[in-house]
From TrEMBL:
Taxonomy of the source species: Bacteria, Pseudomonadati, Nitrospinota/Tectimicrobiota group, Candidatus Tectimicrobiota, Candidatus Entotheonellia
Gene3D superfamilies: Jelly Rolls (2.60.120.10)
Active site, per annotation: 295 (proton acceptor)
Obligatory cofactor(s): Fe cation
Alphabetical keyword list: Dioxygenase, Iron, Metal-binding, Oxidoreductase
InterPro entries hit by this protein: HgmA_N (IPR046452), Homogentis_dOase (IPR005708), RmlC-like_jellyroll (IPR014710), RmlC_Cupin_sf (IPR011051)
Domain Homogentisate 1,2-dioxygenase N-terminal: 138-282
Protein name: Homogentisate 1,2-dioxygenase N-terminal domain-containing protein
Length: 425
């Protein structure tokens, strides 16, 4: 299949959170009014152009309401061959667990660690592996060496990817977004997308969100520019393909998969606008609020929140360094939240070694804190150096509802993790 762009270096963006205009020269002054024929690009038949709304929250104005208006070159796919067929999940994504339809499994109240998943050959959806799930969110990883041979339309949830290693392009019907190390890339549910690696392997953290669309936390007195600014949010520019031929689209719904066959390229959107679009954000643009005297809790690092969970970004920051201050997290019992950390780059401030690509799961109700060696290391630096930096990039997901652990995750578990707090300085 022809790529939307030659490589990640060729992707162009617009910036901002809310209303976007990628009408791409189409002249239509209102939704539900078709573009004027003489504003259509060459090769587009005016009689076949249609508007399509991609919307959520059932058109009802609410915090979750958002709509994209897509202007398509084709009035609708003509089903060819067998048209539409259910496909067994084990053929499409055998390790992708849809938390919203999967009964929960009680977990032991204990901390767990999972080794970095092995790199897989093949494409990103076939290799997507869920480790944790609840009715609000599924959390996992994927890696790939090949482009997806079809476009996916996930009707179950929004897909959030975080690029841990490698690079590539996430093609969508809105246009392409670059997959570069350290970027969050958000795909609203229902958006056609395809992951194309430029380097092998491309290793991604994945989160599927079943509730409201992600929001930036309210930064209150600190203002709109706090944490990150809308200028840091990058949105695709329109990119379409008018090719005829047979193309497959797979729709995910209720944890099942359905194959559609199109008689034209499915990314035939010649222009679009609205307040719903995929976006990406570089974790390096996250600017944490810090204190030199008292440890700031993880909630201050919230980057996105959805219904029932938050995603926090731990990035390089000056450590707390006033006399007797704690430069690493305090011991805590997170009484009503589960915690998953994905370790991307560097030595985590509460640990004593690099855990790149691995994850930990700390169940609610379990008392935990920094490893003794990490605590001693940080206190020694505070005493010797005064102000010092904590380095590295890490993701934290906190969930309201208990997470279940998948059978596949158990194959990666480091059973000695529980004993790692017993080590002496
Ligand atoms: Fe914790």
């Amino acid at each position: 299949m022809q790529r939307q762009v030659g490589s990640v270096r060729d992707v162009r963006y617009q910036t901002g959170w809310c209303y976007h205009n990628q009408l791409n020269g189409l002249r239509t002054n209102s939704p539900h009014v078709l573009p004027e024929p003489d504003s259509l690009p060459p090769g587009v038949d005016p009689d076949r152009v249609r508007e399509q709304e991609l919307t959520r929250a059932g058109f009802i104005p609410s915090a979750d309401h958002a709509t994209a208006y897509l202007y398509r070159a084709h009035s609708g796919p003509s089903w060819v061959r067998d048209g539409i067929q259910a496909v067994p999940p084990e053929e499409v994504a055998p390790f992708w667990i849809t938390g919203r339809v999967r009964p929960p499994v009680p977990q032991a109240c204990m901390p767990r660690k999972y080794h970095r998943a092995p790199d897989d050959r093949g494409h990103a959806i076939r290799n997507l592996r869920t480790l944790f799930y609840n009715p609000d969110v599924s959390i996992g990883v994927t890696s790939c060496t090949e482009p997806m041979p079809y476009f996916l339309r996930n009707a179950d949830g929004d897909d959030l990817f975080f690029v841990h290693e490698g690079e590539g392009v996430l093609e969508t019907e809105f246009g392409p977004l670059g997959l570069e190390q350290g970027y969050y890339v958000w795909v609203p549910r229902g958006t056609l997308y395809r992951i194309v690696p430029d380097s092998s392997p491309l290793f991604l953290f994945h989160l599927e969100n079943y509730g409201e669309k992600f929001q930036k936390p309210d930064t209150g007195f600190t203002g709109d520019a706090a944490l990150y600014y809308h200028r840091n949010v990058e949105v695709p520019t329109a990119c379409y393909d008018l090719s005829a031929g047979e193309y497959e689209v797979i729709v995910k719904q209720g944890g099942g998969f359905t194959s559609y066959r199109f008689d034209h390229h499915p990314c035939d959107v010649i222009g679009w606008d609205g307040d719903l679009a995929p976006f990406r954000l570089n974790i390096r643009e996250f600017k944490p609020i810090t204190s030199w005297r008292a440890h700031i809790p993880p909630s201050a690092y919230c980057t996105f929140f959805g219904y029932g969970f938050e995603i926090c970004s731990f990035v390089p920051r000056p450590a707390e360094h006033a006399e007797r201050s704690l430069p690493v997290p305090f011991d805590h019992i997170n009484q009503d939240r589960d915690e998953v950390i994905f370790y991307s780059e560097g030595v985590f401030f509460s640990k004593d070694s690099s855990m790149s690509g691995s994850l930990t799961f700390h169940a609610r109700g379990f008392s935990h804190g920094p490893h003794e060696r990490a605590l001693q290391r940080a206190m020694a630096r505070r005493d010797q150096e005064g102000a010092f930096m904590l380095e590295g990039y890490f993701l934290l997901v906190e969930t309201n509802q208990p997470l279940s652990i998948t059978a596949w995750a158990e194959t990666l578990e480091d059973k000695d993790y529980l004993n790692s707090w017993q080590s002496t300085p």
